[in-house]
Design a protein that fits this description.
Chain lengths: 498, 357
């Protein structure tokens, strides 16, 4: 047997690694247990690469029974467990634990079955989001939530984060489109939550699992709802001379009783960032661009597009364009969906925020962000799920410059705290993870965090599942509170410290 | 602080300290639902009423728990909006708090979504008399566990709902109701087939050899669907009254004591358990008349669903048969632990959902 050790670990850590690896090898085939640095390195971070940590061990189980055994074993040995899907998450929810097991679900990649009559699909958590829609396509059906990362992200990760997408205003988030899940708890018990019926007896535990960021259990199977693909979809692209005017146009569309299939905004910087990348023909003179999609029958869409165009014109749109073909529709969307990679082209690094605000506060929040750009000396491009108030400011920075990293993080924190101040939230769809844990102290009172801990405790009394994520401890909030007061009260802030 | 609220808090705190149990009550229109609660006192939420904020262009309404459901719906209707899950009132006086606590939805459920799907946030009075806020007034919010959705349908077992923020939707521009003569098996096949097509079906019901279908949406979409489906159109007023009778159980089939509700995969074939009314495209089925509890539960479970003794003939029947479908052992254990975290002394509605909760 190869001695399971890794050079570079201190003797105590190395000894622990040997012990845990040997125990895991008793319940998993050897090839499912990775511990050498060259094998574990690819798992050191998720989509939020600011946070990196080598896990002690990576396990890649192949069956639910193996997951149960791994969890029972980790519970017995007191080993923290972090679940991971495709690792596309943006909040560090899958950042490994130095003394823990990283439990990858990549091998759970089977579509168990698609039932066109019942309009559902039973899939394993490692199945990619887009693969579900591809499997359902021959039946004229699809899975609605479409996070921008849908070619890569997995349904298990979507369940963990309650992912949205550009079409969730009309079709809902993951929580609205998942019917059932099998969940293994830290005790190794299997919970069957939800069903192919529309509700379940007792408390709605499935809704607590969805968006729980791997804190309550490991999902081993998901039943998703499939819906008929609309006959037609067309998108209106409109330019505005200010973000406020674009914001008004959004409110007018909703007030007129229209729920568009998608309603997205990009500010000037975002447009200038993506246009050279996708050549979608975006208006480079606009201060803001709206993309508003209508779907349904041919007649319905024609009628709705007409109304949307009229409303945009009344709100002062400086340019209006309707997609004339499916190819053009996809091209209009390409810019929005590729905003993140485009940011990667013009800046060494970018930091994507995810606050949600009441839409009426858009003007105020965007002008405050513009002021923060000066304060922190960093650029920020704004893409925005305008229909549901979900902002994605992309802060551009250089990770090789430690000072810029710090400023980017502070810039992000200030945006999130502003979102809370105007009645919104620190995360609309990316999750709290490791990233926004301090801002949880701003959004929730101690008693509310206690309730979250109570829920955590009811599912995972050991606290071994994804420790240190999503819900901050009292000590952490106290520390953050102190730093906060400090920052404002500090004298001579221009003097370098530490 | 509000006098009403401080009074509510004081009463809960006293109950907690004195280990007394409280029965949470709003309009009292859904008291029949669930197991009878042995309680020391009633916590009446109906005076804690009023709409706090309503922003039609944000699609959000926030109101106190005691607000009459009728008042909320009227306010929404004035702006051309609605509660999309079409909640039952059962009788006059239904409140918003009761609507959320029971999470009962009406005919539009299968197409629009559940009560929980529209709950954006709640303010909860917990068992220690503390006021806690979860969720908010925005559409997308994944900070912390979704306690608002957990509270929806919890029958007051976790805490007393003080306020709720809901996502509201525009009313459809147009509605038409169609009728078709057909047997149960054909109706089930038809409803499921329609569900797989892009049709504006907003409600379905089959009863006594007759399938009734409601189409909602843009004029153009309804016209196209009518042409495709056929059937006989009902006059608008008659149709509205009929759907309301289903929603509020004034329909003769539903206005009975001893009524079972089966929640099933929509494709489940006819169960042959006796007279049946089907809704939600096949996913909700009502059985009236005396059917042995064991038989109903077994049939529902075998089909992959569950059965609720929705309205028992007597307290004895409710106690003997239980109201809600038994939970699996590990799921029941999580329920008990959650109850213990939220309400360790068992102040709120003990035994309303399950005897040990």
């Amino acid at each position: 047997m190869n001695a399971p050790t890794e050079i570079g670990l201190d003797p105590i850590a190395a000894e622990r690694q040997v012990e845990v690896v040997q125990a895991l090898r008793a319940v998993l085939p050897n090839y499912c247990v990775l511990f050498r640095e060259e094998d574990t390195r690819p798992y050191e971070c998720d989509g939020l690469s600011l946070f990196r940590q080598l896990p002690m061990v990576v396990v890649l189980p192949e069956t639910e029974e193996q997951v149960r055994q791994v969890l029972r074993l980790c519970k017995r040995m007191g080993v923290p467990v972090v679940a991971r899907g495709a690792g596309t998450g943006l909040s560090g929810g899958a950042t490994p634990h130095a003394e823990g097991v990283l439990l990858g679900l990549a091998k759970f990649n089977r579509i168990v079955h698609v039932d066109p009559e019942a309009r559902l699909a039973v899939v394993q958590p490692g199945v990619r989001n887009l693969a579900i829609s591809e499997a359902a396509a021959p039946h004229g059906l699809y899975y609605a939530p479409d996070p921008s990362s849908q070619i890569a992200c997995t349904i298990g990760g979507n369940v963990a984060e309650n992912s949205g997408g550009v079409h969730c205003l009309k079709y809902g988030l993951t929580v609205h489109n998942v019917l059932a899940a099998r969940v293994v708890t830290m005790d190794g018990e299997v919970l069957e939550l939800g069903s192919s019926a529309l509700d379940e007896p007792g408390l709605d535990l499935l809704s607590i699992i969805i968006g729980s960021e791997g804190m309550l259990g490991i999902v081993t199977e998901v039943t998703v709802k499939l819906i008929p693909r609309p006959a037609v979809a067309r998108v209106v692209m409109a330019s505005f001379a200010s973000v406020e005017a674009a914001g008004d146009a959004v409110a007018r569309v909703i007030a007129a009783g229209i729920i568009p299939a998608g309603l997205e905004m990009m500010d000037r910087r975002a447009v200038h960032m993506v246009e050279p990348f996708v050549c979608a023909g975006y208006d480079l003179d606009a201060e803001a661009i709206l993309l508003c999609e209508s779907d349904g029958t041919e007649e319905e869409v024609a009628d709705e597009i007409c109304r949307i165009e009229a409303l945009f014109a009344q709100c002062g749109a400086t340019r209006l364009q309707v997609s004339g073909s499916e190819a053009e529709r996809l091209l209009f969307w390409a810019g929005r969906k590729n905003a993140f990679p485009a940011a990667g082209r013009i800046s060494p690094d970018y930091y994507c925020m995810d606050g949600t605000i009441p839409r009426r506060c858009l003007g105020r929040v965007l002008s405050a962000i513009a002021e923060m750009e000066h304060k922190y000396g960093l650029r920020c491009a704004n893409v925005f799920h305008a229909g549901d108030g979900n902002l994605h400011p992309l802060i551009l920075f250089d990770a090789n410059d430690i000072d810029e990293v710090e400023r980017a993080e502070q810039f992000g924190a200030e945006i999130l705290e502003l979102c809370v101040e105007v009645g919104g939230t620190i995360t609309g769809e990316h999750g709290v993870g490791a990233e926004k844990i301090d801002q949880m102290c701003v959004q929730f009172a101690r008693e509310e965090l206690d309730v979250f801990f109570g829920i955590k405790h009811a599912f995972d009394a050991t606290g071994l599942l994804n420790p240190g994520k999503a819900i901050p401890t009292l000590a952490r909030c106290n520390e953050y509170g102190r730093r906060h007061v400090h920052r404002d009260a500090i004298r001579f802030p221009e003097i370098p410290r530490f | 602080m509000d006098v009403l609220l401080s009074d509510l808090r004081a009463r809960v705190l006293m109950a907690h300290v004195g280990r007394k149990s409280l029965y949470i009550r709003g309009g009292g229109t859904k008291g029949f639902y669930g197991l009878p609660v042995d309680h020391d006192a009633v916590l009446d939420l109906s005076p804690y009423a009023g709409v706090i904020d309503y922003q039609p262009s944000e699609l959000v309404l926030s109101a106190r728990a005691g607000t009459p459901l009728a008042q909320v719906e009227e306010m929404l209707a004035e702006q051309g909006q609605m509660l999309a899950f079409e909640p039952p009132h059962f009788s006059a006086g239904a409140t918003l708090g009761g609507c959320i606590a029971t999470a009962l939805a009406g005919p539009r459920r299968a197409s629009a979504g559940s009560v929980g799907d529209f709950v954006l946030g709640v303010r909860l009075l917990d068992a220690q008399g503390r006021v806690l806020r979860f969720g908010g007034e925005v559409m997308k919010n994944v900070a912390g566990y979704d306690v608002s959705r957990l509270v929806a349908g919890s029958l007051g077992t976790l805490g007393a709902i003080l306020e709720v923020s809901l996502k509201v939707l525009p009313r459809p521009a147009c509605e038409t109701t169609l009728r078709f003569e057909m047997d149960e098996a054909t109706a089930l096949r038809r409803m499921n087939a329609w569900g797989g097509q892009a049709l504006p079906v907003s409600a379905t019901a089959w009863c006594g050899g007759c399938l009734t279908v409601r189409l909602s949406g843009a004029q153009a979409a309804i016209a196209a669907a009518r042409a495709a489906l056929g059937g006989e159109a009902l006059p608008d007023e008659e149709a509205q009254a009929w759907w309301r009778s289903l929603r509020d159980h004034t329909h003769p089939f539903l206005a009975v004591r001893s009524l079972w509700r089966l929640s099933l995969p929509s494709v489940t074939r006819p169960l042959g358990l006796g007279p049946t009314l089907i809704e939600w495209g096949g996913a909700q089925r009502w059985l009236s008349g005396p059917v042995p509890a064991q038989r109903v539960r077994q049939a529902a479970a075998l089909a992959g669903g569950h059965a609720t003794l929705f309205r028992a003939a007597s307290v004895d029947e409710a106690r003997a048969s239980g109201v809600f479908h038994p939970l699996s052992t590990p799921v029941a254990a999580i329920h008990r632990r959650l109850k213990n975290e939220f309400d360790p002394e068992g102040v709120f509605n003990p035994g309303r959902m399950y005897p040990d909760l």
